[in-house]
Amino acid sequence: MKANLMKIRFLIGILVIFLGIQLWGSCAEEVPSKGEQLYMAYCANCHGKQGEGLAALIPPLAKADYLIQHAEELPCMIRYGMSGPITVNGKEYNQPMLPLKQMTVEEIYEVSNYVLNSWGNEYRKLYQQEIELYLKRCAEKSSDK
Ligand code: HEC
User: Under CATH, to which class is 33-144 assigned?
Assistant: First the structure.
């Protein structure tokens, strides 16, 4: 009798540990990073959830040659917008991107690193201090005009 009870207790113990691990694993997977949350809030409407772009209107970010070649300009694109024709992966786009002035430096830092390292993109990390520097430089440029 006693031995059976021990066995049952042991099995329940194993089950609880197993369920715990499952639960913990699924929670860890489902919480998106800060950068991803910001991307979904500020960029995905136009550029698509997977950075795929929108037909001939909005260029892709996933594996976009333009993005990787202009990675250090990304913070300024986000804060000040951009306009004029550009070529992305061999296709021309020419619709203005509006500035996202409400995004803080920290948010620009998070979202930039998310975009530069998602959907097959591989770039080095941009540091928050360098982003501040880029933003300062393009602020000076835009006040020169
Ligand atoms: C209202 C729609 C819209 C939103 C929101 C938007 N973009 Fe854009 N984005 C555009 C358009 C349109 C262009 C093309 C600009 C041009 O033709 O000069 C563009 C161009 C770009 C480019 C350069 C081209 C390329 O594909 O590499 C990058 C990088 C970019 N956007 C990143 C972002 C990021 C990051 C966000 C969010 C923080 C964002 N955009 C939010 C519409 C948008």
Answer: mainly alpha
